[in-house]
Amino acid sequence: MTAKKAGRTKVERQLVEEWRGILALHARTQCELDRALHGHGLCASDFEVLDLLAEGDAADGGCTYRVQEISERVHLSQSALSRLIARLEKDGLVDRAMCAEDRRGVRVALTGKGRALHDEVLPVQRAVLTRMLAG
Fold first, then answer.
1. Which of 23, 38, 52 is nearest to 128 (CA)?
2. How far apart are CA 71 and CA 59, in angstroms?
3. How far is residue 129's CA from residue 61's CA, in Å, rounded to a whole number?
4. What pTM did the predictor assign?
């Protein structure tokens, strides 16, 4: 093996190890979030959607997002996101409505119940992130 190839192989190994470390941290953090949020009837993906809607809500008091906009920010397939939103709607946490500007689109907004649950669970989620991502 040439010195150049050996050096590249070492760099590639380090890169792959770093990538696997990121994946492992993500998996551990996701599991911890799911465990902590389970007692509140949520999983990590549910909370991500509520959190995104709450951020927008805080910015303009009653903000809604198109499902397409949400899918660009959370890491779920379109079909998985649609099922998640349907479940949140069934639980009374979000409302869905047709977009006024484009009848093919759907807008999603937090309900009062969704906002209250988000506010209750936010410190739990942030504590898990702080613990898992520190150092």
1. 38
2. 19
3. 26
4. 0.82
- Predicted confidence (pLDDT) per residue in 4-57, tens digit: 666 678 899 999 999 999 999 999 999 999 999 999 999 999 999 999 999 875
Q: How far apart are CA 5 and CA 33, in angstroms?
A: 42
% of the chain exceeding 70 in pLDDT: 84
Q: What dihedral angle (degrees, nearest 10) is formed by the CA atoms of 20, 21, 25, 27?
A: 20
Rounded to the nearest 5 percent, the helix, strand and coil shares of the chain are 70, 10, 20
Give how far Cα 4 sits from Cα of 10, 12, 17, 65, Å: 10, 12, 20, 51
Report yes or no: 114 and 56 within 8 Å, Cβ to Cβ. no
Q: Which one is the CATH code of 3-133: 3.50.50.60, 1.10.10.10, 2.60.40.730, 3.40.50.2300?
A: 1.10.10.10
Residues 113/93, Cβ–Cβ less than 8 Å: yes
**Strand arrangement of the beta sheet that strand 65-66 belongs to:** 65-66, 106-110, 94-98
